[in-house]
Specification:
Order of helices and strands: HEEHEEHHEEHEHEEHEEHHEHEHEH
Radius of gyration: 22 Å
Largest sheet: 6 strands, mixed
Number of strands: 14
């Protein structure tokens, strides 16, 4: 499936999975940590993105319906319900997952499994659907919780996949916990050392095959040059582009990059005002060395303003320091420097789009990554050219390989295939 997606530039590729009801149970306790919790959410989004279409109707006899339970201490469960009528597209689902916030409390895994079975599967599963549960845990849970509930999914109507992450699963008692969750089916137990392994392409491929070993439906036709409808209409998104203005980019490529930003602004449905609770606003920062950052335009919905600002842009032709650029973007775009109030909308997804090869100075990089996490930034990386620093790209992408778009050159920015994929991802 991955091979077809990567090589078939003129195909619409979708798996036919039949009716699937899938519930992800993810650990949101303090022992997990913010970064690992973000990786859990990225894993859920990446897997679901592989499974064909989301069934628009919760009662549909085809397509996938997906629920998520995040849990922490006793009684602290937050759920995206299988039968939530508002979740009628992948974009809606992705947004709902991104809104989940790390709880950072204790760990009541058995109770969470019982809750997930009773409140999502038992009450909401479709009659003709195959039902899967995917449980992610680091093995720790409160000893006051009832271990009998570890087998909550073992009623014969759910295929359970248990993913244990960390060194604790080298201990026999913790290994037994994992097998209890998976109903003693060794084939459905997966152990990992690090949470970053969740978002590895190989593991996403494996989960895709586990959940949907279905046929691949490939329809060949030329990709349209225009999307049929405007994008980002059903939710608020504030998008900040960070454009590498270093000498490695070159003036011709720099022009291609800012033309790409302008094309994106025309393709999206922009907000009607700064207080609009839907639609998109965009901003652009060009950066060079540690002290060279230029806000080309702040978060705005005004196409005329965007076009005029881009027509006056001046290529820095400098060195590159992306860490300082991130901090500058947060302090001067996300936060209004005049009054120190948040300029990004509180209810909007805050997205940083990096256009860079990742070859940069390392000063302030770790500090800037922490700042991104504090601001709940969702990163997307457009990596152009064959000579890239993947370590840096992964850092600014917060470890999510799916958020990194690798393209051979800047000319690819204007290709319909890439542009379509980018718009669908960002929205």
């Amino acid at each position: 499936m991955t091979y077809v997606r990567e090589t078939c530039g003129c195909c619409d590729c979708e798996k036919r999975c039949g009716a699937l009801d899938i519930v992800f149970v993810i650990d949101s306790s303090e022992s997990i940590g913010y970064t690992n919790f973000s990786l859990e959410k990225n894993f859920v989004i990446n897997v679901v993105s592989r499974l064909g279409s989301i069934a628009k109707d919760p009662k549909s006899e085809t397509g996938a319906r997906v629920g998520v339970v995040q849990y922490s201490h006793e009684g602290t469960f937050e759920a995206i319900q299988l039968n939530d009528e508002r979740i009628n597209s992948l974009s809606n689902f992705k947004e709902a997952v991104k809104r989940l916030e790390w709880i950072a409390g204790g760990t009541w895994t058995p109770s969470a499994l019982q809750f997930a079975y009773n409140k999502l599967i038992k009450e909401s599963k479709r009659e003709k659907a195959r039902v899967f549960a995917v449980v992610i845990t680091d093995g720790r849970h409160d000893p006051r919780d009832d271990d009998n509930n570890l087998r909550a999914f073992c009623q014969g109507d759910v295929i359970v996949n248990a993913i244990g992450i960390g060194d604790m699963f080298n201990q026999p008692d913790q290994d037994e916990t994992l097998h209890s969750i998976a109903c003693n089916d060794q084939q459905h137990v997966q152990k990992m050392k690090l949470f970053s392994e969740l978002v590895a392409e190989e593991f996403i491929d494996k989960m895709e095959d586990v959940l949907c070993p279905g046929l691949l439906d490939v329809t060949v036709f030329p990709l349209p040059t225009e999307l049929a409808v405007a994008q980002c209409t059903q939710r608020p998104v504030d998008i900040v582009f960070l454009l590498d203005g270093s000498e490695r980019t070159g003036e011709v490529n720099f022009r291609r990059a800012h033309n790409f930003v302008e094309e994106v602004s025309h393709r999206l449905t922009l907000a009607r005002g700064d207080n609009d609770n839907m639609n998109a606003r965009i901003a652009l920062l060009q950066y060079g060395s540690e002290r060279e950052q230029e806000v080309i335009f702040p978060l705005t919905y005004n196409l005329t303003y965007i076009s005029e600002a881009l027509s006056n842009i001046r290529y820095l032709d400098s060195s590159s320091d992306i860490g300082s650029a991130i901090i500058h973007a947060i302090n001067n775009i996300v936060i209004n420097p005049q009054n120190q109030q948040r300029a990004a909308r509180r209810n909007a997804e805050l997205s940083f789009v990096f256009i860079t090869d990742g070859i940069t100075g390392g000063k302030n990089l770790n500090e800037s990554i922490s700042s991104m996490k504090k601001q709940d930034v969702m990163p997307t990386v457009v990596a152009l050219g064959s000579d890239v620093n993947m370590d840096v790209l992964l850092k600014i992408g917060l470890g999510d390989r799916a958020a990194i778009f690798r393209e051979k050159d800047y000319a690819s920015l204007s290709q319909p295939g890439f542009f379509d994929r980018f718009i669908r991802w960002i929205c």
